Amino acid sequence: MKYNDIRKVFLDYFESHGHKIVPSASLIPNDPTLLFTVAGMVPWKGILQGTEPAFAPRVADVQKCIRAGGKHNDLDEVGFDGRHHTFFEMLGNWSFGDYFKDGAIEMSWDLLTNVLKLDPARLRVTTHESDEESTEIWRRVAGKEAIRMGDKDNWWSAGDTGPCGPCTEIFYDFGDQFDNEDDRWVEVWNDVFMQYDRDANGNLTPLPKQNVDTGAGLERWAAILQGKVDNYDTDLFTNLINATQDVVGVKRTDENTPSFKVIADHLRAVGFAIADGVIPSNTDRGYVIRRILRRAMRHGQILGHRGALLSKLYPALVTEMGDAYPELAREQSRVVEIIQNEENAFADLLQNGMKLLDVEIPRVQNGVLPGEIAFKLFDTYGFPLDLTQMILRDKNMDVDVAGFERAMAEQKERSRANTKGTRTLWESQTDLPATDDSYKYAPDENLNSTVLAILHNGEFVQSAKSGDEVEIALDKTNFYGTQGGQVGDAGEITRDGATVMTVTEAARVDNIVIHKGVLTDDLSVGDAVKTKINGNTRMQTARAHTATHLLQAALRHVLNEDVEQRGSKVSPDSVRFDFSFGRAMTAEEKQAVEDLVNKWIASDMPVSHEEMSIDDAKKRGAMALFGEKYGDTVKVISAGDVSCELCGGTHVYHTGEILHARINKEKSISSGIRRITMSVGTLAE
Ligand code: SER
Q: What is the DSSP code (8-state) at residue 662?
């Protein structure tokens, strides 16, 4: 039976047994605990937990899965045996509180032995050591005595928390010509009886309903049904490997077979993931995909190939799998472009780094590359440590990882000392109380404050003179200190109604607001002063900040929902915004984004500034910056219904106050990350 025909046999069987057939969900799970959809049950977690209603009592599907990175990780295994994949398809049938152990076991057995005609003598089953009931059902249904196993083998969960339960697994016997157990016995189906929800402390609570989650690897079924031992010898993989032979111009041999397998596997993972919206990057799932793509390129190189590889092979993937997954063809031009960009960037990186490595490798002693060299590669050429390790592994060498980390820590220390200037001096003032800057959102001109510290010429002094350049800390302030990409306020400090200091920028060191500027009169610690921000600059900055939120919303609207902020600088009337996106924007896209932002400005939407708990903010769907730490109470800034973000910055109250926005430039700053500069307000006008 052909690989591509198996899906239909599976789905037809379950449809005729009352199941609703649904298409695969995305590889990007709607679940913050997982990087990828690792199993067929991931999209149904809410239903299993009872927080979402079941749309049908019985469901069956074929789910795209990736197991790479995170708890379920098969990446390093791929290529060296015939059974591991990063991307695979999981055939699954579900009962949401409908049939339970009887039904699941009966149907699995019926489909395998009566429909697919597998020899019952070649099948062996396991059950959980606590599961008397399933063991009894196996005796009745198949006359089989199940092997009882512990939690490690027969208890299933997608992550550390969530739905879980005991399972029964069916294995196929490839025959006693294999002395290795793993080669001989292959798990062909896993029926999980989802009965419990596990919390973060490991406690099990019974789920509202007893459910069934089954999973069977399509690639393994194809191998068995085609009389192959190795999944990569099935028709689909053979076709992908043939396409690879054509692109690299080398024939498959026993020796180079692992590289062909790696490339075929990684083509599927990279192609499907990007089609579903993943963009190669330096974090999270983007990084996993970047690593997989680079691993494929390395294996291309082992085969003697240079330059683009997966982008050239993608059409073969569409030919093989496009009928079952229309998104592959629909997204083709975008996917190929992203892969090409990634391949080009990586080719440059490899070439430069390899020059250094070619010099260093012959010097390696005892098979271990010194950590400083690996760090130099990282620091100067952008070579990640795992890439260096991968290259060395092919030569049976290793990297001194501890040495690498030491070099990295030393470098961090050096740059801290160099670039932070007075920051370390302020950091040393551990007795200084946190500045009360709660007035910053509604500056109060009559706020009385006291001078707590004065830094002048690298020293903390009791008083300084008119004309001195100083940095001062107060007990309270109206000033917004630079934070979250927004530059701090400018303004002045007054004493008895007269200016004593012109503040050019308020900065922040931990929870202290530092006012930087020049004294216009003598000033001493303990002086009673008032803080007066420059309303004009504040207004310009607020415009720019709200405009940044509109820009992000417009980018997600025009480009796609996956665009994510990667950094920003909000200055008076100007914005620099970095975001994840795999290619240059077209002139039309830039225009569309600018037009949309201006339309939202013109419609003068109200901008609400609200404080709420982080949980409420999440419920509201507020966007947060990945990796940023937020307190329990957060500020949520919403512009009409187009944007809702967690944000501690200062904002306008109506979008009309922004006046106008203009995109000046859009460029790449690193692979997969773009930068837009935009003017707003009077500058844009
Ligand atoms: N969730 C189980 C697995 O992935 C059965 O579908 O094996």
A: E
Q: What span, in angstroms and rounded, lies between the C-alpha atoms of 193 and 154?
A: 10
Given a contact cutoff of 8 angstroms between Cβ atoms, the answer to whether 271 and 259 are in contact is no
Work out which ligand 1 atom sits closest to the CA atom of 158: 1
Residue 231 beta carbon below 6 angstroms from any ligand 1 atom: no
pLDDT digits (tens, 9 = 90+) for 340-390: 999 988 887 777 788 888 889 999 888 999 999 999 888 777 787 888 888
Q: CB under 8 Å to 494, separation ≥6 — which residues?
A: 500, 529, 530, 532
Dmax over CA atoms of the chain, in Å, equals: 97
| Beta strands per DSSP E along 121-265 | 123-128, 147-149, 155-157, 162-173, 185-198, 204-217
Task: Express each pLDDT in 422-460 by its tens digit.
Answer: 777 888 888 899 999 989 988 888 899 999 999 988 889
Q: In this structure, which amino acid lies at residue 110?
A: D
**Which ligand 1 atom is at minimum distance from the Cα of 65?**
4
- Measure CA of the first residue to CA of the last residue in the chain; give whole Å: 67
Q: Sign of the CA dihedral 237, 243, 248, 252?
A: positive
How many CB atoms are located within 10 Å of the residue 380 CB?
Answer: 11
Does residue 212's CB lie within 6 angstroms of at least one atom of ligand 1? Answer: no
Q: How far is the CA of 191 from the centre of ligand 1 (A)?
A: 7
pLDDT digits 0-9 by tens, 78-122: 777 788 899 999 999 999 999 999 999 999 999 999 999 999 999
Residue nearest to atom 3 of ligand 1 (CA): 215
pTM of model > 0.70: no
Token reading at 272: 């499907």
Query: What distances in angstroms separate CA 405 from CA 200, 408, 409, one per listed residue?
Result: 31, 5, 6
Distances (CA, A) of 497 to 43, 82, 492, 530: 64, 81, 11, 8
Q: Which of 167, 170, 155, 178 is nearest to 124 (CA)?
A: 170
| Cα 564 to Cα 49, 276, 428, 626, distances in angstroms | 30, 15, 36, 9
Tokens 């490997």 found at:
241
Residue type, 301: Q
For residue 678, what are the β-bridge partners? 575, 663
